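Page 47, continued from p. 46.
Same chain as before, 160 aa.
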Amino acid sequence: MNAFVEHALYATVRNLFRLFTAVVLVSLTLMPLESRSDARGTSSSTTTKVAESVHDISESDFTSLVLNSSKPVLVDFYAGWCYPCKKLAPLVSDVSREYKDRVSFYRVDVDKNSTLASRYQIEGIPALKVFKNGKIVEESLGLQSSKQISSLLNHALSAR
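Result:
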């Protein structure tokens, strides 16, 4: 082989290896945690537990439960495969206990309710939106602390 062909072959193999590595890393990142195995080879359960005061809803009941609510409503837009969403869920649950008499709490799976996600311009998750009198009065994007969620709710409660 001449030097040019050897160099081209080497570059192609190197690029294929880089591509393979990238695909593996992306696949592992996107793989739901439920399907990964722990060190013992058993499936580890990471299903998010949601408090009794945070309910999953769909497009069919969004208007009646959120837009027509007499009190403010926090809606957590999430996806089952989203790791930050899984981290946020217990924080929202904790905050829901503190505000349960003043605010309603719901979750919307953006994969199952794409029309809602589109309507409310959900471009990243987790996304929290606080509705009051059918309108968004507060919102945040990304993983939030309990203190940040409480602040969001306090602003919404004090808004006219």
